[in-house]
Inverse folding.
């Protein structure tokens, strides 16, 4: 049984189809770690061109999926989370280990390195069947939708 299903995730994250890349949250220890799942299916929009006849999930989307999972604990802490948007500010130490293909269950594990009211640093590891596919240190901010076009 998931801790958060897709409907609960959409009440927290601003992302929507086709860019919502997490289906459920199965573990959550606030301000410490979170684990999400992405069921990779053959009908994903990106497989049409990446690559015809040999579909592979783009690694940048694996990192995006990790960032989405990592944004959930931070956004949950805001009562006005509908006015918030998480933005990447950096990706460090990214490593890509193996391809993710249709039918894979992508496990997205994110551990907090630093959590602030606006700035986060986290380490994410994506894996399939216990084998790492991608990992990175992800830096992000939580910005106000109303202030997104101004410097803070």
């Amino acid at each position: 049984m998931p801790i958060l299903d897709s409907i609960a995730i959409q009440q927290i994250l601003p992302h929507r189809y086709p860019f919502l890349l997490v289906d459920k949250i199965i573990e959550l220890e606030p301000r410490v770690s979170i684990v999400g799942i992405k069921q990779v299916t053959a009908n994903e929009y990106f497989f049409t061109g990446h690559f015809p006849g040999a579909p592979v999930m783009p690694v940048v989307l694996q990192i995006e999926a990790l960032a989405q999972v990592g944004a959930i604990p931070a956004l949950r802490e805001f009562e006005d989370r509908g006015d918030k948007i998480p933005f990447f500010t950096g990706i460090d130490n990214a490593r890509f280990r193996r391809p993710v293909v249709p039918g894979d269950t992508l496990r997205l594990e994110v551990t907090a390195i630093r959590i602030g009211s606006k700035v986060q640093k986290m380490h994410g590891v994506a894996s399939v069947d216990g084998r790492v596919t991608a990992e990175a240190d992800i830096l992000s901010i939580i910005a106000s939708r109303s202030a997104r076009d101004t410097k803070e």
About this structure: The first strand starts at residue 24 and ends at 29.
